[in-house]
Amino acid sequence: MRQFHAFAVLAAVALLAFQPARAFAQNSVVTLGGNLSAAQRQTMRQTFNRPGARTIIIRHQDEERLLAGIAPQSEIGARSISSSAVTINPAGTGIQVRTHHITWVTPLMYANALATAGVKDALVEVDAPFPVSGTAALAGILTAYQTASGSRIGLGQQQTAARELVVTGNLGDQIGNKAKASALIMNVKGRVIGGHLTSAAAIRPVVVAEAHRLSITLNRTQIDGIIHLMVAISRLPLNPATVAAQLRGWRNQAAGVLPLGVWPQILRWLRVIWDAVRSLVRGAI
User: Fold this and answer.
1) In this structure, how many other beta carbons lie within 10 angstroms of the beta carbon of residue 10?
2) Which of 14, 94, 238, 247 is surrounded by the fewest CB atoms within 10 Å?
3) For the chain, what are the domain ranges?
4) The model's pTM
């Protein structure tokens, strides 16, 4: 049964890859940074290739509303530049993320935060006319998803997802490995929501154990930051099986689209990610 499900997911993803762009129009939403010039907006529209899709302009105030007190102003910036396209896919395909010109946020960081926000079965594309950190793009992605899916995500849940994005990125910078940082946050999150852990006292040994398992050395400030994030996540209406299923979609995407020549350099990184996804699945049982 599991093999059939995996085949069905991969077949659906492959089928979507060959769909003409116009077929995405009815279930796609494009967001454009409010400070882009007319020429830059046109470039983004052409890049996303979603003719007929609804377009929403994201203002800088929308990004600050989500990230105020979470990300430093240097990451939020003073202008709305990042753009996104979100397409709702068939149930079971999970979250898939593609980025271009995004320098700080990795696709897995987006996927992990979007799963925390409650995003399901969506193809997310993030781009900008020139390199940007990508932190502020989350506001546009969540706006596009809610519009495309017709669902509503509470501001508190959106801000927790944004905090997860920032905590993961900062930790990745500090330990010099964003893949490992993402895996750590994913593993801990799986155990927290799977075990219904809600207190700092219950979460602390999980953080320490998972860090040790991944050979990550954390100082007290880093541990406390992860615990603070996890306490907030524990209060969200998250189902561990659903979160795991959404991240399996990202894993299948990564396995299917990486060029063969890249595998020697990236194999260890993928193993870290896949181990993290399996940890989430174990937490759901």
Assistant:
1) 15
2) 14
3) 2-155, 163-284
4) 0.82
